[in-house]
Design goal:
By secondary structure, the protein is mainly alpha-helical. 96% of the residues lie in helices and 0% in strands.
C-alpha cells in the first residue's frame, strides 16, 4: 500500500514538473529577441495550449488509471493479507495438530513400553506355569503309582479280611463247640464227682487237655483280627 502511494506521488510530481517546464519554455520562447509574427505566435501558442490540454487529458487519464491501479493494488494487498491470515490460522491449527500428534506419540511409546514389559512378564509366567505343570505331572504320576499300590494293598487287605472273616466264623463255631463240650464235661464231672473222686480227677485232666488244644487256634484268629485293624 505504501509503495503504491509513493508511485502515485512520483507520477504526479513528474507531470507537474513537465507542465512547469513547458510553461517556462513558452515564456522563454515568447520573450526571445527573435520576434515572430503575431499570427505565428498565436498559432504556436494555440498549438502549445492544445498540447497542454492534451497533456492534461493524458495526465487525467493516467491519474485515473494510476488511481485504479492503486485501488486494485490495495484490493490485491487486502486479499493477500486475508490469504496470509488464513494461512497463519491454518499453520496455527497444523501446529496444534502436530503438538497433539507428538503427545499421542509419546503416550503410544509409553504404552508400547508397558506392553513389551507385560509381554515379558507373561513369558516369565508362562515359563513358571510350564515348570509347575511339569512338576504337577510328575506328582500326578507318583500319585497314580501310589494309588495303584494302595488299590493293590486294599485288594490284598480285602482278601485277607475275607479270610479272617472265614477264620472268625470257624473260630466262632469252634467256640460254640467248645462251650457245648465244656458243658457236657461239667455235667460228667458232676456225675463222676458224686460217684468216684479218682474218676473226677481224670475227667478234669481230660477237659483241661481238650480246652488247651483249642487255645492255639483262638490265638491265631485274634492275631489275624489285630493285623486287619
Amino acid at each position: 500500500m505504501t509503495s503504491s502511494k509513493s508511485s502515485q506521488t512520483i507520477v504526479i510530481a513528474l507531470l507537474s514538473l513537465w507542465s512547469i517546464v513547458s510553461l517556462i519554455v513558452i515564456v522563454v520562447w515568447a520573450t526571445s529577441p527573435t520576434m515572430k509574427s503575431a499570427s505565428q505566435c498565436q498559432a504556436e501558442l494555440q498549438e502549445v495550449t492544445e498540447k497542454l490540454e492534451g497533456a492534461k487529458v493524458v495526465w487525467s487519464k493516467n491519474k485515473v488509471a494510476l488511481e485504479e491501479m492503486v485501488e486494485e493494488g490495495r484490493e490485491n494487498v487486502t486479499q493477500k493479507q486475508e490469504e496470509v491470515q488464513r494461512l497463519l490460522q491454518r499453520m496455527d491449527a497444523i501446529n496444534v495438530s502436530l503438538d497433539a500428534c507428538r503427545q499421542e506419540n509419546v503416550l503410544l511409546s509409553r504404552n508400547i513400553s508397558d506392553l513389551e514389559q507385560q509381554i515379558e512378564e507373561h513369558r516369565d509366567m508362562e515359563a513358571n506355569l510350564t515348570a509347575q505343570i511339569s512338576l504337577y505331572q510328575d506328582q500326578l504320576e507318583t500319585l497314580h503309582m501310589n494309588l495303584t499300590q494302595a488299590f493293590n494293598q486294599t485288594a490284598s487287605c480285602f482278601y485277607q479280611s475275607s479270610a479272617a472273616v472265614s477264620q472268625l466264623m470257624e473260630a466262632q463255631k469252634l467256640t460254640k463247640s467248645c462251650h457245648s463240650s465244656r458243658q457236657q464235661l461239667e455235667k460228667k464231672l458232676l456225675t463222676c464227682n458224686k460217684a468216684d473222686p479218682q474218676t473226677h480227677q481224670q475227667t478234669t485232666k481230660n477237659a483241661a487237655n481238650a480246652i488247651t488244644s483249642f487255645l492255639p487256634l483262638v490265638g491265631a484268629v485274634c492275631c489275624s483280627l489285630r493285623l486287619l485293624t
